[in-house]
Amino acid sequence: MAKLNNIKALTELIRSEEKEKAKAEIYKELIERQAKLEMLGISPPIPASILADMKADLGKAVKGAIAAQKVSIKACVKAELEELAWLEGCRLPNLLSESLADNIEIDDTGNVTIVDAASKLPIKDAKTGKPISAYALILQARENPSYKPLFEKVSSDSTTIPSHNPWQKEYLNLTQQAKILTENPALADRLREEAKATR
Protein backbone atom coordinates (compact mmCIF):
# COMPACT_ATOMS: atom_id res chain seq x y z
CA MET A 1 0.00 0.00 0.00
CA ALA A 2 2.82 2.40 0.82
CA LYS A 3 4.22 1.91 -2.69
CA LEU A 4 0.90 2.83 -4.32
CA ASN A 5 0.61 5.92 -2.11
CA ASN A 6 4.14 6.89 -3.14
CA ILE A 7 3.21 6.49 -6.82
CA LYS A 8 0.09 8.63 -6.36
CA ALA A 9 2.08 11.34 -4.58
CA LEU A 10 4.75 11.23 -7.28
CA THR A 11 2.07 11.43 -9.95
CA GLU A 12 0.60 14.56 -8.39
CA LEU A 13 4.03 16.13 -8.02
CA ILE A 14 4.99 15.40 -11.64
CA ARG A 15 1.62 16.59 -12.86
CA SER A 16 1.88 19.94 -11.02
CA GLU A 17 5.51 20.46 -12.09
CA GLU A 18 4.73 19.75 -15.72
CA LYS A 19 1.69 22.05 -15.68
CA GLU A 20 3.83 24.84 -14.25
CA LYS A 21 6.52 24.28 -16.90
CA ALA A 22 3.94 24.35 -19.66
CA LYS A 23 2.30 27.46 -18.24
CA ALA A 24 5.67 29.24 -17.97
CA GLU A 25 6.52 28.42 -21.58
CA ILE A 26 3.14 29.68 -22.79
CA TYR A 27 3.44 32.93 -20.81
CA LYS A 28 6.96 33.46 -22.13
CA GLU A 29 5.76 32.95 -25.69
CA LEU A 30 2.78 35.24 -25.12
CA ILE A 31 4.96 38.03 -23.71
CA GLU A 32 7.47 37.77 -26.57
CA ARG A 33 4.75 37.81 -29.22
CA GLN A 34 2.91 40.69 -27.55
CA ALA A 35 6.17 42.69 -27.39
CA LYS A 36 6.72 42.10 -31.12
CA LEU A 37 3.18 43.25 -31.86
CA GLU A 38 3.63 46.40 -29.80
CA MET A 39 6.87 47.18 -31.63
CA LEU A 40 4.97 46.86 -34.92
CA GLY A 41 2.22 49.08 -33.56
CA ILE A 42 -0.53 46.46 -33.85
CA SER A 43 -0.97 45.55 -30.18
CA PRO A 44 -4.54 44.48 -29.18
CA PRO A 45 -6.45 42.64 -30.42
CA ILE A 46 -4.13 39.70 -31.00
CA PRO A 47 -4.64 38.34 -34.52
CA ALA A 48 -6.48 35.05 -34.88
CA SER A 49 -3.47 33.36 -36.51
CA ILE A 50 -1.30 34.16 -33.47
CA LEU A 51 -4.03 32.95 -31.12
CA ALA A 52 -4.21 29.74 -33.12
CA ASP A 53 -0.41 29.35 -32.86
CA MET A 54 -0.57 29.94 -29.11
CA LYS A 55 -3.31 27.33 -28.73
CA ALA A 56 -1.23 24.88 -30.78
CA ASP A 57 1.81 25.60 -28.57
CA LEU A 58 -0.28 25.06 -25.48
CA GLY A 59 -1.54 21.76 -26.88
CA LYS A 60 2.04 20.62 -27.60
CA ALA A 61 3.20 21.62 -24.11
CA VAL A 62 0.32 19.75 -22.47
CA LYS A 63 0.94 16.63 -24.61
CA GLY A 64 4.65 16.78 -23.77
CA ALA A 65 3.91 17.12 -20.06
CA ILE A 66 1.52 14.17 -20.17
CA ALA A 67 4.04 12.03 -22.07
CA ALA A 68 6.81 12.88 -19.57
CA GLN A 69 4.47 12.09 -16.69
CA LYS A 70 3.61 8.68 -18.18
CA VAL A 71 7.29 7.80 -18.63
CA SER A 72 8.08 8.71 -15.01
CA ILE A 73 5.12 6.77 -13.62
CA LYS A 74 5.91 3.73 -15.76
CA ALA A 75 9.50 3.73 -14.45
CA CYS A 76 8.16 3.79 -10.86
CA VAL A 77 5.75 0.93 -11.54
CA LYS A 78 8.52 -1.12 -13.17
CA ALA A 79 10.71 -0.53 -10.10
CA GLU A 80 7.83 -1.66 -7.89
CA LEU A 81 7.36 -4.80 -10.03
CA GLU A 82 11.08 -5.53 -9.74
CA GLU A 83 10.98 -5.21 -5.95
CA LEU A 84 7.86 -7.36 -5.67
CA ALA A 85 9.41 -9.99 -7.95
CA TRP A 86 12.53 -10.08 -5.78
CA LEU A 87 10.40 -10.45 -2.64
CA GLU A 88 8.59 -13.37 -4.28
CA GLY A 89 11.89 -15.14 -4.95
CA CYS A 90 12.50 -14.21 -8.58
CA ARG A 91 16.17 -14.75 -9.46
CA LEU A 92 16.19 -12.04 -12.18
CA PRO A 93 13.64 -9.45 -11.02
CA ASN A 94 14.86 -6.74 -13.41
CA LEU A 95 14.36 -9.08 -16.38
CA LEU A 96 10.86 -9.99 -15.20
CA SER A 97 9.81 -6.37 -14.61
CA GLU A 98 11.09 -5.46 -18.09
CA SER A 99 9.12 -8.37 -19.57
CA LEU A 100 5.94 -7.25 -17.80
CA ALA A 101 6.32 -3.59 -18.87
CA ASP A 102 3.76 -4.07 -21.68
CA ASN A 103 1.19 -4.94 -19.01
CA ILE A 104 1.39 -1.42 -17.57
CA GLU A 105 -1.07 1.11 -18.98
CA ILE A 106 -1.14 4.72 -17.80
CA ASP A 107 -3.93 7.10 -18.77
CA ASP A 108 -3.60 10.86 -19.29
CA THR A 109 -4.49 11.56 -15.66
CA GLY A 110 -1.71 9.28 -14.37
CA ASN A 111 -3.85 6.33 -13.29
CA VAL A 112 -2.08 2.96 -13.56
CA THR A 113 -3.93 -0.10 -14.86
CA ILE A 114 -2.57 -3.62 -15.29
CA VAL A 115 -3.68 -4.80 -18.73
CA ASP A 116 -3.33 -7.83 -20.98
CA ALA A 117 -0.28 -7.08 -23.16
CA ALA A 118 -2.00 -8.26 -26.37
CA SER A 119 -5.51 -6.84 -26.05
CA LYS A 120 -4.73 -3.88 -23.76
CA LEU A 121 -7.88 -4.70 -21.76
CA PRO A 122 -7.64 -4.49 -17.95
CA ILE A 123 -6.90 -7.78 -16.21
CA LYS A 124 -9.58 -8.35 -13.57
CA ASP A 125 -9.54 -10.43 -10.43
CA ALA A 126 -11.70 -13.53 -10.91
CA LYS A 127 -13.27 -13.22 -7.44
CA THR A 128 -13.88 -9.49 -7.10
CA GLY A 129 -14.05 -8.37 -10.74
CA LYS A 130 -11.79 -5.41 -9.92
CA PRO A 131 -8.57 -4.64 -11.81
CA ILE A 132 -5.57 -6.50 -10.38
CA SER A 133 -2.61 -4.90 -8.62
CA ALA A 134 1.09 -5.02 -9.51
CA TYR A 135 1.55 -7.67 -6.82
CA ALA A 136 -1.17 -9.85 -8.38
CA LEU A 137 0.60 -9.50 -11.74
CA ILE A 138 3.80 -10.87 -10.18
CA LEU A 139 1.87 -13.76 -8.62
CA GLN A 140 0.35 -14.54 -12.03
CA ALA A 141 3.80 -14.43 -13.62
CA ARG A 142 5.03 -16.87 -10.98
CA GLU A 143 2.44 -19.41 -12.18
CA ASN A 144 2.97 -18.65 -15.89
CA PRO A 145 5.01 -21.43 -17.58
CA SER A 146 7.04 -18.81 -19.46
CA TYR A 147 8.22 -17.10 -16.27
CA LYS A 148 8.13 -20.02 -13.83
CA PRO A 149 11.86 -20.88 -14.30
CA LEU A 150 12.75 -17.42 -12.95
CA PHE A 151 11.17 -18.38 -9.61
CA GLU A 152 12.49 -21.93 -9.29
CA LYS A 153 15.11 -22.60 -6.68
CA VAL A 154 18.46 -23.75 -7.93
CA SER A 155 20.67 -26.35 -6.33
CA SER A 156 23.48 -25.02 -4.19
CA ASP A 157 26.17 -26.41 -6.49
CA SER A 158 25.03 -24.36 -9.50
CA THR A 159 26.45 -20.91 -10.12
CA THR A 160 23.53 -18.50 -10.12
CA ILE A 161 24.66 -14.95 -10.61
CA PRO A 162 22.43 -12.39 -8.85
CA SER A 163 21.02 -9.47 -10.86
CA HIS A 164 23.04 -7.04 -8.71
CA ASN A 165 26.32 -7.70 -6.93
CA PRO A 166 25.46 -7.52 -3.19
CA TRP A 167 29.07 -6.57 -2.36
CA GLN A 168 28.93 -3.40 -4.48
CA LYS A 169 28.39 -0.23 -2.49
CA GLU A 170 25.14 0.75 -4.27
CA TYR A 171 23.62 -2.76 -3.96
CA LEU A 172 25.00 -3.73 -0.53
CA ASN A 173 22.84 -6.56 0.81
CA LEU A 174 24.12 -8.61 3.76
CA THR A 175 21.34 -11.19 3.48
CA GLN A 176 22.23 -11.97 -0.14
CA GLN A 177 25.93 -12.02 0.75
CA ALA A 178 25.30 -14.61 3.47
CA LYS A 179 23.15 -16.71 1.14
CA ILE A 180 25.78 -16.72 -1.61
CA LEU A 181 28.59 -17.43 0.87
CA THR A 182 26.65 -20.44 2.15
CA GLU A 183 25.52 -21.81 -1.22
CA ASN A 184 28.47 -20.98 -3.45
CA PRO A 185 31.70 -19.72 -1.80
CA ALA A 186 33.54 -19.55 -5.15
CA LEU A 187 30.90 -17.21 -6.59
CA ALA A 188 31.03 -15.15 -3.39
CA ASP A 189 34.80 -14.72 -3.78
CA ARG A 190 34.40 -13.68 -7.40
CA LEU A 191 31.65 -11.13 -6.64
CA ARG A 192 33.70 -9.73 -3.74
CA GLU A 193 36.70 -9.23 -6.05
CA GLU A 194 34.52 -7.60 -8.74
CA ALA A 195 33.13 -5.19 -6.15
CA LYS A 196 36.65 -4.27 -5.00
CA ALA A 197 37.70 -3.62 -8.61
CA THR A 198 34.86 -1.14 -9.16
CA ARG A 199 35.65 0.98 -6.08
Q: Could you walk me through the main structural features you see in this protein, from its secondary elements to its overall organization?
A:
Helices cover 62% and strands 3% of the residues. By secondary structure, it is mainly α. Strands 1-2 form a two-stranded antiparallel ribbon. α1 (2-40) runs antiparallel to α2 (48-87), α2 (48-87) crosses α3 (93-99) and α2 (48-87) crosses α4 (134-143). The two termini are 36 Å apart.
Q: Specify the number of helices.
A: 7
User: Taking Cα atoms only, what radius of gyration do you get, to the nearest Å?
Assistant: 25 Å
Taking pLDDT < 50 over at least 5 consecutive residues as the criterion, the unreliable ranges are none
Overall pLDDT metric: 80
Give the CA-CA distance, first to last residue.
36 Å
**Structure classification:** mainly alpha
Question: H/E order of the elements?
Answer: HHHEEHHHH
The 3D shape can be described as elongated
Record the strand order, biggest sheet: 1-2
How many structural domains?
2
What is the makeup of the main sheet?
2 strands, antiparallel
Q: Name the beta content range.
A: under 5%
Number of beta strands: 2
Q: Helical percent range?
A: 55-70%
Helices, strands, pairings?
Layout: H1 2-40, H2 48-87, H3 93-99, E1 104-106, E2 112-114, H4 134-143, H5 148-151, H6 174-183, H7 185-198
Antiparallel strand pairs: 1-2
Helix pairs in contact: 1-2, 2-3, 2-4, 6-7
